[in-house]
Sequence to fold (313 residues):
Amino acid sequence: MRQIHGSFNKNQRHKPLVSQFSKIGIISKPDDPAIAQTVQSLYQYLQGQSLEIFTDKVTASFLTPESVSISSLNQLAENCELVIVVGGDGTILHAAHTLIQKEIPLLGINLGRLGFLAEISPQEIEKQLDLILSGEFKEAQRIVLQASLLRNGEVIASCCAINDVVVHAKQMVRMIELESRVNNHYVNTLRADGYIVATPTGSTAYALSGGGPILHPNVDAIVLVPICPHTLSNRPIVVNADSRVEILLSEENRHTALASIDGQIDMDFMPGDTIFIERCKHALRLIQPENYDYYDVLRAKLRWSTSPDTSNK
Fold:
């Protein structure tokens, strides 16, 4: 995870705010009226900074109609220098699938229950945005995967994955047989409920519940996690992020499977199909408060022990 500090000059803290970003987009979680007040507060704050604001359809529904114009995700990607996402990690993942092609930096306001990507609480919007827009922030670049589905020698679908690529049985409570390779080296033939290939970002998602390790975001690696394997000696494997992973759905399978991308995009995975997973040429850019600490996030989200008292240090 590369971190880039903004050029904020603390001597200018009391001068009028000069934003590092002049064109800002807002994307909001759909079907959640509870976020209306947060969206309105955010919009009013940005208006007060005389910034050019672009909103998606959901965001616009919470605002006075005549005061906003609605943009598609593609238009936001073309026009914005920063996109603020109001919602949880799922909303950020949904937005990132479009915005990542232009590598637009994202800033998350966390309204979800377990957010590892959304950094700011609704109560801190004005305080944190004062600092971030002035340049006092970190930028993290996260690994993204590219998944390509091959059928009869032809790529029929391709998609980027921020969290993970999950191959699993389409029918419930059925095992499937999979063959895996890394950089053309045969790894194993696996009978299991499925297989997870996750980035460090995704290591705290489905892969974690499957018994996989937590990978710190600056670790240049990906993890392969079997889901409920028939042979209990099958264990997660961590490989270099530049590895090319192949997962073949054995032709012995009677049923189709699914390749699920970030839990949001599904591709039918037929017996004989192969999915190739490798590093994407694009990265996920996240804007974080300057005092962001990944271990603080783990303690808070996973309910680990509290931080020790450092007041006397």
